[in-house]
């Protein structure tokens, strides 16, 4: 158990819909990262927040957005969903914002778009 | 960050050492070598990292060649629970190096009884 929690565990929805994925980082961690893992794309970095501020963007679509709240939990919002958005979405956290060695990953949310 | 090359897959017998190679010929002087692994559909797990000296922890050993163009992750006594995809990642670690973490395709390691 990494200490990072993600809800929900599974999510099934239809094309065109909007969903919100939630992540609670480890106690004391200030940075949150979101990753997408699909079968054909591997593990892709989406976005990073540090203490409430966006710090880095990766391959995140304009239909996707995220935020980190004052209590440091984060939400990833996915809208106008397409079949290709079906994937595992992982959240990770770290104490500092730049340490790859310090990233702890949650169990993931499996999103299925029908 | 430098690109890495890993074999697509490899098998290992339970109880034997698993040696996982990684090529990073374009690595620069301030880039670290990291290893993560992902057991089927679980979140990736940090294993070890190093700059130029060999490193060892409770999970594995990391051997980096003197020219730093390649490295080997060693799992000393592989168990069935070590079956996973292993990712070798090269990355600069500075206080201004935010985000942009790139996981490649990794090596699928299968440990057999």
Write the layout of secondary structure elements.
The complex is a heterodimer of chains A (114) and B (113).
Chain A: E1 5-7, E2 10-13, E3 19-24, E4 31-38, E5 42-50, E6 53-57, E7 64-68, E8 74-78, E9 87-94, E10 104-105, E11 109-113
Parallel strand pairs in A: 2-11
Antiparallel strand pairs in A: 1-3, 3-8, 4-5, 4-9, 5-6, 7-8, 9-10, 9-11
Chain B: E1 9-13, E2 18-23, E3 31-38, E4 45-50, E5 55-56, E6 61-64, E7 70-75, E8 84-92, E9 107-112
Sheet with most strands of chain B: 5 strands, mixed
Q: Proportion of β residues of chain B?
A: over 45%
DSSP helical segment count of chain A? 0
Counting DSSP E segments of at least 2 residues, the number of strands of chain A comes to: 11
Outline of chain B? globular
Helix content of chain A: under 10%
Strand order, main sheet of chain B: write it out.
1-9-8-3-4
Task: Report on the architecture of this protein.
- The complex is a heterodimer of chains A (114) and B (113).
- By secondary structure, chain A is an all-beta fold.
- Chain A is built from no helices and 11 strands.
- Chain A has strands spanning 5-7, 10-13, 19-24, 31-38, 42-50, 53-57, 64-68, 74-78, 87-94, 104-105, 109-113.
- In chain A, the strands form 2 sheets. In chain A, strands 2, 4, 5, 6, 9, 10 and 11 form a 7-stranded mixed sheet that branches. Chain A has a 4-stranded antiparallel sheet with strand order 1-3-8-7, with no helix packed on it.
- Chain B is mainly β.
- Chain B contains no helices and 9 strands.
- In chain B, a hairpin with a 6-residue loop joins strand 3 and strand 4.
- The model of chain B has no long low-confidence stretch (mean pLDDT 91).
- Classes of the chains: A mainly beta (114), B mainly beta (113).
């Amino acid at each position: 158990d990494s200490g990072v929690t993600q809800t929900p565990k599974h999510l099934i929805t239809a094309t065109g819909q909007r969903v919100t994925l939630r992540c609670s980082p480890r106690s004391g961690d200030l940075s949150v990262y979101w990753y997408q893992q699909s079968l054909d794309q591997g593990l892709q970095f989406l976005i990073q927040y540090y203490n409430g501020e966006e710090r880095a963007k990766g391959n995140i679509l304009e239909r996707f957005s995220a935020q980190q709240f004052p209590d440091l939990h984060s939400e990833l919002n996915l809208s106008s969903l397409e079949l290709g958005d079906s994937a595992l979405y992982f959240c990770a956290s770290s104490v500092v914002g730049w340490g790859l060695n310090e990233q702890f990953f949650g169990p993931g949310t499996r999103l299925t778009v029908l | 960050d430098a690109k890495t090359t890993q074999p697509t897959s490899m098998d290992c017998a339970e109880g034997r050492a698993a040696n996982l190679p990684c090529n990073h010929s374009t690595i620069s002087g301030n880039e670290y070598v990291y290893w993560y692994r992902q057991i089927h559909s679980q979140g990736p797990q940090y294993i070890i990292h190093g700059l130029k000296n060999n490193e060892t922890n409770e999970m594995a050993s990391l051997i980096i060649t003197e020219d730093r163009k390649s490295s080997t992750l060693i799992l000393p006594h592989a168990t069935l629970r070590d079956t996973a995809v292993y990712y070798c990642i090269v990355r600069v670690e500075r206080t201004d190096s935010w985000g942009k973490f790139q996981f490649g395709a990794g090596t699928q390691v299968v440990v057999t009884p």
